Amino acid sequence: MSKKKELSPELKAECEAAKALFVSKKNALGLTQASLAEAADISAAAVAMYLNGTNPLNPKFAAVLSRLLDVPVEKFSKRLAKEISGLTSGGEGSADAGLSAAELVRQMLTKQGKGLSEESRRRLLAAAESDDSTEIKYYQPGQVGDEVWIAHYDVRAAMGGGQIPHEYPEMLQDIRVSPKHLRDLGVTFKEHFHLKMITGWGQSMAPTIKDRDPLLVDITIREFTGDGIYLFSHDDMLYVKRLQKKGKDRFKMISDNKHHDIEEIRVDDTHILARVLYVWNGQPV
């Protein structure tokens, strides 16, 4: 795997300015990196990568940070302030002003989307049309009778050597399930809107989890709650593995595939993002 390219001095300076503002105001506002991650709908690891200058700031994260800290975006990034202004207003006198999200995406695809596959174009347009019709609630998907919608995120959690996580998950599709049926299957959770779907990749957790099996996770579990299978990041890689505590400062990272060795990792270097509750192949976890 090639080494991640270092940010330019300008982009790094934006990250440093954002981090300085966050550090200076977080105590007074009662903020943490975890609460910032929650508000931005990204992982705690992704927040750390922004604030530490590993990934460049983007408009979505900048807008959330600005709102939570009650500071204008230009306080840490004039570049993004200008970009966000253009996105929201279309610019003074612009022909884009007042267009819906779907219309803007159609224009973008016409001008710049020639290299995209038809499936990618369809998904982008579908997401934009969804934004026009209803605000997507991260924590509270809509309920239909006894069935509820559970968001399915394109987060490839590697059941092997690990994968670099996306800057933020892209919503692909939802599934509709009955909370009562889930509980009848033995799935334990407090609220249905704590649940999300992800996809595992690789063979190291077979036979419990096979390559590309959908996984039901509880995103409110952000710390070790006992032996089990977790979604977590370590060394900027994303994993789905069993974790067991070894002493106070180490985890055993365990693969169900016995051809893979048990590894030991430091608790301080491990960021738990969710706990796996159910594998959509009927396998208990």
UniProtKB/TrEMBL annotation:
Positions of the HTH cro/C1-type domain: 27-76
Highest taxon listed in the record's lineage: Bacteria
Record key words, sorted: DNA-binding, Transcription, Transcription regulation
Record InterPro entries: Cro/C1-type_HTH, Lambda_DNA-bd_dom_sf, LexA-like, LexA/Signal_pep-like_sf, Peptidase_S24_S26A/B/C
GO MF annotation terms: DNA binding
Pfam family, one: Peptidase_S24
CDD domains associated with the record: S24_LexA-like (cd06529)
Keyword Transcription appears in the UniProt entry: yes
Gene3D superfamilies found in the cross-reference section: lambda repressor-like DNA-binding domains (1.10.260.40), Umud Fragment, subunit A (2.10.109.10)
Listed name of the protein: Helix-turn-helix domain-containing protein
